[in-house]
Amino acid sequence: MDEGVDPTKMCQTLVNRVASSRQLQAISNPEIIGLFEDWFDELEAEVLESVQKGANTPQELAPQLSISLVGADFLLTKLKREHKITE
């Protein structure tokens, strides 16, 4: 049977999605979301300040804010897309 759906894989995918859904429910508390949004706003302010001081790349920004390169790249891209910083 080389064709068709692999039932084992399909079941594993379903289990993973249920687990993910439960995890999302656990963090959907409005207070937690509010805290996360506050933290993220503070982080964006730190990024803007660092950019004004010359940190224009993820490689420069990440060590200054103690975040990963991926996180720094995400924040820079987001702020550029929102026209809060220019290239």
What topology emerges from the helices and strands here?
Layout: H1 7-26, H2 30-52, H3 58-65, H4 69-81
Helix pairs in contact: 3-4
Which keywords apply here?
87 residues; mainly alpha; Arc Repressor Mutant, subunit A
Would you give an account of this structure?
The protein is mostly helical and 87 residues long. It has a domain at 30-87: Arc Repressor Mutant, subunit A (Orthogonal Bundle), CATH 1.10.10. 74% of the residues lie in helices and 0% in strands. It contains four helices and no strands. It has helices spanning 7-26, 30-52, 58-65, 69-81. The longest helix is centred in the middle third of the chain and has 23 residues, at 30-52. The protein starts with 6 loop residues before the first helix and ends in a 6-residue tail after the last helix. The model has no long low-confidence stretch (mean pLDDT 82).
Secondary-structure-based class equals mainly alpha
Strand content: under 5%
Termini gap: 54 Å
Q: Quickly give the CATH architecture of the domain at 30-87.
A: Orthogonal Bundle
Just give the CATH class of the domain at 30-87: Mainly Alpha
Give a quick summary of the entry.
The protein has 87 residues and is mostly helical. The protein has helices spanning 7-26, 30-52, 58-65, 69-81.
